[in-house]
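User: Please predict the structure of the protein below. I'd like the answer in structure-token form so I can feed it into my own downstream comparison script.

Assistant: Understood. Taking the following sequence of 213 residues as input:
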Amino acid sequence: MPQEIEVAAATTAAPEVLFRHLAVPEAWGAWGKFPTRARQVRKGDTTTYGVGCVKQIWPAKEQTVAYEPYSRFSYIALSGLPVRRYRSDVHLDPQEDGTGTYLRWRATFEPLVPGTGPLLGFFFRLMLKSFVRWLPDHAEGCPATCPARDAATCNGRKRGTGREHPAVPSARTRPRTAPNRTRGRKPPTTPRRRTGRSPAASPRRPDRTSGTW
């Protein structure tokens, strides 16, 4: 029988900040207290972190199935969990007064072994409660070294500005400047003009044998 769990929390962090920490796989290792690091093992179908992106947090491997900046993020478990058809939907609703976000984390799954639903539900509820506590705590004081800041942008926009992220030309596409070939060379010299005069004849030496010059 399918099981359903939902937990919620309020935070002063903005929806776009929370969304980046959900979308970037490596950011899970920054805010989540997991025994192993989180990493991306497959890029999204159309964007780096969009639908189709796969992250691994041992022993689980999860795939993004809904990517709606900055309001909803959903993923399913591909392997590593003791359940079938696990899915999480995270909703980010801006506070009415504009001071933060109302975070709702909902999970559904089916137990592998009949009768273990209540026990697994207790485990997953504790896990989600930890998530809605760890994520806001980290996002409200996100350090500069967090992967959510350093990774590629979400929604094709520059982080936190709402402006399009300007493209930076690579070394292959960056135009080359013409080298200065005159640097280090001596200035050209003006050739001397010829006057047409022959060099002065050297004086004759006396002929001592004949007594003449």
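That's the full token string. Helices lie at 15-23, 25-31, 117-140, 147-150.
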